[in-house]
Batch of 4 targets.
Target 1
Amino acid sequence: MCVGLLVSSAIWGAAAESKPQKNYAVGQVTLADGRPLTGDIDDIVLTVRGVSEAGSKVSYSPVVKAGLFKQKLVPGQYYFDTGKIKMMFNQTLLMFDLVPIGKSWNKNRDAEDGIVQDFVWKPTGQKETYGRPADPNNATHWHGLSVGMRFQIFRSHTNQAPPLLPVGTTLFFTLKPTSKSIDGRALTSWTIERAWRPNDITPNDDLNDLPIATYELTGVAQLPDGTSRPILFQGRGHYPNFVKQAAVLVEVDSSLGGLWKQMIGWVTE
C-alpha cells in the first residue's frame, strides 16, 4: 500500500513522452488533469490479453509503480481490459474503474509495433454518456459520490403530512466536509442549489458527483415570497425522527461494486 503516491516532475515528464517500444506495452496512470495519483492507493490492476503468434492465449498483469508500467510481450496481438484502482478510505477498500485514453485500448494491436496505453482515474466528473447530454440529477452519469434526496410525504415522528412547498421554491443543501477527499485533497464547505419540482415525474433531485468524502449535511428551502424553512433530514439511524443535520457517509456497494448511494429523506418545518 502506498499513501499519497507522488513522483517527481522529471520522472513524470519523461513518462508523458514515452514512445512505442517493440514487444512492450507501456503507459501511465494519472488523475484526469495529468497530475500524479494521490491518496491511499492499495493497488492498480491492469490486464493485457491477446493471442501469441504461436496461437496461444496470453494475458499479463503489469506492475504499476509510481503510476508507470512497462510489460514485455511475446509476439502477437493484444488488447487491454478495463483497468481498476483500489483505494482505502476510512479503513474501507473501494474499487473504481480507470478510464482508458483513446479508442484503441480494447482493440487488437500488434506487439511488434509497441503498444502505448494510458489510463486516468476520475474521482469526480462526467462518465461516458455516448452522445447524450449529461444529467446533473442522474447518478449514473457521474463518477463522484451520490446522495439520494427523497422528499417524505409523511413525518413519522409527528404522524402528520409535512407542510407543502409551493412551485418556485429553491432548495439549498450545504455540505461541510468532515474528512479529506479520497484523493487526499482538503475540501471546503459549499452549497448546492436545486429547484423544487413537485409536478415532475421525479421531483426529488439527488446530490451527485460530490468529491468522495464524508460530510455534515444541512439545508434550507427558500420560498417564492422570500421566507425560508429549515430542511429536516431522516438518514440511517434517525427513524422515526427528523434532524437538522445528517451525516453523509462513504460506503462500498458490495453487490454492484463502486460506491453505495446513500438515501436520505427530508421534509421542512
Note: Residues 81 and 159 are 53 Å apart (CA to CA).
Target 2
Amino acid sequence: MFENARAIGVDGSGNVVVADFGTGRIQIFDANGTYISEFLPDDFERTQYSSSIAVSRDGNIYIPNGTLIHVYNENGELLNDISDSERDFEYVVLGADDVLYAVTDKDFEPTIVRFDRNGVIDLEIVNPLSNISEDVSTNGIIGVDNFGNIYYCDAFNPVILKFSPSGEFIGQFGGDSPAGEGYTPGKFVNPLQIETDNQNRIYVVDFFNIQVFDTNMNYLARIEGGYYGVAFNAQNNMYGTSTLDNNVVKFEIQPPSQ
C-alpha cells in the first residue's frame, strides 16, 4: 500500500519500482502489480521527500539527495554514491542506454548534467531557460529520448525546451494554459515529468492530464486524469502514479497510426 506514491520506474525485467513521497519507502512489484519487496534508504529523513528516482535495466535505483546521488539495488543494498560537493542534485533520469542525467543547482545556477560510464560529468547545460529567454531559471525537470535529445522544463515556466545530445538548443513547445479556459491542447498548468516511449513520442505529465507529442514536438493526444509520474516497460506499457487515489495505473499504449 502507498501513502503518497509519486516517483516510478521500471527495470529490464518489467519490475515496477515506486517511491513513496510520504514515508520514503521504495517498493518493488512485478509487471502484474504483485508485491515483491521494499526497503527504506539509509538516510530516509532526507530522501523521503524526493519526488525523483531513476531505474536502470539491471534494477539499479538512483535517488538524488543533496550533494549525492545514491545507487541502490532492488534488495535495498547501497551500491554507490555519486557525489559532488559543489552541487545539489534535484532530479535524475536515465537515457535509453542507461546513461545518467541530472538537474543540479550549482552556485544558484540550475544546470543539466550528463555522466559518462565512470560517473564523470561529460556534458553541462547551464541556465537552460535563461540562455534561451529573459526568464529567470530555477530548478526543473528533464527527460531524454532514444536519440539522446534532452527535454527540460523550468519549475515555474511551463515551456518544454529541446536540446541535442551535444547540448545545442533545438526548439521549444508548450507554455501556460490560459487561466479559466480549462484544458488547452499543447499548453500546461504544472508539468511534473517528461518521459518518452519506445516510439519516441514525448509524454508531458501535467497535474491534470498527460499530453503526448511527436518527436517534432507536435501535439498528438491527451490521456485524462492526474498523475505524478509515469514509466514505460519494454513492451511500451505505461505505468502511472495517480494523484487521486494512490494507485499505480497500467496503460497499454498503442503504436502510432500509419
Note: The chain has a mean pLDDT of 90.
Target 3
Amino acid sequence: MLPPEFPRVDIMRIASLALAILCLPGLALAAAAPKVDQAPAVKAVVDCRKITDSTQRLACFDAAVANLDDAQAKGDVVTMDRAQRQSLRKETFGFALPSLAIFDKGASKEEVSNLTLKVTRVSHDAQGHWLITLEGDQLWRQTDSEVLARDPRPGSTALIQKGALGSFTMKLDGQPTIKVHRDQ
C-alpha cells in the first residue's frame, strides 16, 4: 500500500516515462538500420522491363547486363545467393553490426535468431569463465557465473540464441544455458 502523499496519477506518469525510456534503445537500433536500395547497375537491368518495344528492350538489357557484369568484375557490385548469405550470417552471428541486416533478407526469424555449431576448443579465462571456440573460429566468452554439470569439449554441440538487448545465451549439449559474448 502506498502512502497517501504518493498520488496515483504521478505513479502512472512515472511508470509511463520509465517504459518510454526503456523502449528508446530499441527504437534507436531500428532507426539505425539502413534502408538498402538496389545498386544502380541492378536497377538499370530491372528498369529495362518497362520498355514495351522488344528491340529497344533487348538493347537496354544487353547494355545494362554488360554494365552489371563490369561493375561486378570491378567489385562495385557484389551479388550473393541464399547459400552465400547463410554462410556469411553464420560467420558474423553474435556481432552487433546493424549494416549486416541486409544478409537476413529472405531468412526465417529462427535462422537469424539462433545458430548451432560444433565446439572446436575450450579453455577458461582468468576469472574462471569458459572460453569456447566454435566452428569458423568464433570465440565466445561466458559472462555469467553459471556452472555446467558437464564440461564442454571439442565436438560438443553449442546452440547460441539471441536474447534481449543484444545479449546471447549458449546451450552446450542440452545443458542449461549460460550467458555469452562473442569476442571474435
Note: The CA atoms of residues 128 and 184 lie 19 Å apart.
Target 4
Amino acid sequence: MINIIEQKIQENIQYEVLDIVNESNQHSGPATDSHFKVTIVSSEFEGVGLVKRHQRVYQILSEQLAGPIHALAIHAYTPEQWKLKAQAPSSPNCMGGSKED
C-alpha cells in the first residue's frame, strides 16, 4: 500500500519531501495494512489553506480511502513551514472507530 500511495502522490504533486509511514500497528483490531501517515512538503501548497491541501491528497487517494485505507493522517507543509517544523506530529492510537468510556 505504501508503494501505491507514493506512486499516486508522485504522479500528482511535485514535492520536496514525502514520508509515508505504515501505522497499522496502532490499529486496535486485527493486523492490517490500513493506517498510514503521509508527510508531504511541496511548494504547490504555497497560498493554499490546510483544508484544501488535505482535500487534494484525499482526492488523489480516493480509491484507496474507499477500500483498504481505514485511517490516513496527512501533514502537508510548504517548504518554509517545514524549515520551522522539520517533523510531523505523532499519530494517536486507533480506537477502532468507537469511543472508549
Note: Strands lie at 17-22, 35-41, 71-77.
